């Protein structure tokens, strides 16, 4: 396996969050592929019960078990786990109390479902616990089972609470298995082995949520990671033209003459109509480009490593996923 310098050397748990609609699950999947390249073994975990990983990789719904779902560039393997809070609870009872059979009986009675419903934080402890156990797990030869774990986490608005709930549980439980479990989880989540990455678009609301999320992480003492700006569109129009359009100095007459001279229109009236239509699109594009420049500047002021991923013309299929993974590697994020 070839050694490779990245921005996140030493990080083994990559938590990926983002506002809904930013492509959080897609970027988590692409990051897992990028991290697994060159013969590594990576686990991709989801915790929201949406089967998003299965959809991204075009697979049937995933069971509650770790299974190989993809081969990364140069021979690495990506495994996936869709965490189920109920099954995680059974694992917990077996690990600390040897009570898996009793746990199954409780499941039939609906006790576990009742507990996780009235105490949502308890559910978060279970799913983060399952994830951090995979981070810590070692094989018989003493080596880590996974080189890295990628967690497709809840949205930005509740990421700090989701990750910090184990600390609150540790404060409430002064001793015993629950306290020990919470301390183990918190020890991984708040350590330099973890980085919380944000996925955003170059739009005002997701950028603001990203900045707010970074502030909340810092306040909670959790380790911020990088910012992945998704669906970035490359401008095909010269900067000088965009500047003119953005300042309402765009010359439609010159555009109409150009269309007519190039033979793209049949006559003066046709050229004028086409120029007016194109002009409106160019002005809209110029305004959007200015907005994107402003949002980029806001993200840059956050002082975190930032990566830009392209808008895929054909949508996100498997080929597109590998294209995103390559872009992540090229920019040094994996």
Structural commentary:
With 334 residues, this protein is an alpha/beta fold. The protein has two domains: 13-84 and 119-233 and 311-330, Rossmann fold (3-Layer(aba) Sandwich), CATH 3.40.50.300; 239-288. The chain is 52% helix and 15% strand. An eight-stranded mixed sheet has the order 3-4-2-5-1-6-7-8, sandwiched between helices. Helix 9 links the parallel strand 6 and strand 7 (224-232). Helix 3 packs antiparallel against helix 4, helix 3 crosses helix 6 (120-136) and helix 10 (239-246) packs across helix 12 (268-300). The radius of gyration is 24 Å and the shape is elongated. This is Anion-transporting ArsA/GET3 family ATPase.
SSE inventory with pairings:
Blueprint (H helix, E strand, L loop, with lengths): L12 E6 L5 H13 L4 E6 L5 H5 L10 E5 L5 E6 L2 H13 L2 H10 L1 H8 L1 H17 L11 E5 L6 H14 L4 H13 L4 E7 L3 H17 L3 E9 L6 H8 L5 H10 L6 H33 L5 E5 L7 H13 L4
Parallel strand pairs: 1-5, 1-6, 2-4, 2-5, 6-7, 7-8
Antiparallel strand pairs: 3-4
Task: Supply the key terms.
334 residues; alpha/beta; Rossmann fold; 2 domains; elongated
In short:
With 334 residues, this protein is an alpha/beta fold. The chain has 13 helices and eight strands.
Q: CATH superfamily name of the largest domain?
A: P-loop containing nucleotide triphosphate hydrolases
The average pLDDT value, as a whole number, equals 84
CATH class descriptor of the largest domain: Alpha Beta
Largest sheet: 8 strands, mixed
As a percent range, the share of helical residues equals 40-55%
The general outline is elongated
* Tally of domains: 2
How would you classify the quaternary structure? single chain
User: What is the radius of gyration?
Assistant: 24 Å
CATH architecture of the largest domain: 3-Layer(aba) Sandwich
CATH topology annotation of the largest domain: Rossmann fold
What structural class do the secondary elements suggest?
Answer: alpha/beta
- The end-to-end span amounts to 14 Å
| Total DSSP helices | 13
- Per DSSP E runs of 2 or more residues, the count of β-strands stands at 8
Percent range for β-strand residues? 5-15%
| Secondary-structure element pattern, one letter each | EHEHEEHHHHEHHEHEHHHEH
Strand order of the largest sheet: 3-4-2-5-1-6-7-8
What low-confidence regions span 5 or more consecutive residues with pLDDT below 50? none
């Amino acid at each position: 396996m070839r050694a490779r310098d990245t921005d996140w050397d030493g990080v083994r748990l990559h938590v990926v969050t983002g506002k809904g609609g930013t492509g959080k699950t897609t970027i988590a999947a692409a990051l897992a592929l990028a991290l697994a390249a060159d013969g590594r073994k990576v686990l991709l975990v989801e915790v929201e019960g949406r089967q998003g990983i299965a959809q991204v990789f075009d697979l049937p719904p995933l069971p509650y078990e770790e299974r190989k779902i993809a081969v990364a560039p140069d021979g690495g393997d990506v495994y996936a786990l869709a965490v189920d809070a109920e099954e995680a609870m059974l694992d917990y009872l077996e690990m600390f109390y040897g009570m898996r059979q009793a746990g199954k009986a409780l499941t039939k009675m609906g006790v576990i479902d009742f507990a996780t419903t009235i105490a949502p934080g308890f559910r978060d402890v279970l799913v983060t616990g399952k994830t951090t156990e995979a981070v810590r797990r070692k094989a018989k030869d003493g080596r880590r089972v996974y080189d890295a774990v990628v967690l497709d986490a809840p949205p930005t608005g509740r990421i700090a609470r989701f990750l910090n709930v184990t600390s609150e549980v540790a404060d409430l439980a002064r001793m015993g298995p629950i306290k020990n479990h919470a301390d183990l989880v918190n020890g991984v989540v708040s350590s330099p082995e973890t980085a919380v990455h944000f996925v955003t678009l170059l739009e005002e609301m997701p950028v603001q949520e990203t900045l707010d999320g970074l502030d909340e992480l810092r306040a909670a003492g959790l380790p911020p990671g990088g910012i992945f700006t998704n669906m970035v569109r490359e401008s095909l129009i010269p900067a000088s033209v965009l500047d003119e359009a953005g300042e309402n100095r765009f010359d439609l007459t010159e555009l109409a003459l150009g269309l007519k001279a190039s033979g793209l229109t049949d006559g003066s009236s046709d050229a004028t109509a086409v120029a007016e239509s194109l002009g409106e699109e160019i002005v809209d594009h110029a305004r959007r480009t200015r907005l994107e420049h402003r949002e980029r500047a806001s993200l840059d002021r956050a002082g975190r490593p930032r990566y830009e991923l392209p808008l895929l013309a054909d949508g996100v299929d498997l080929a597109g996923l590998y294209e995103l993974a390559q872009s992540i590697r090229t920019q040094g994020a994996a």
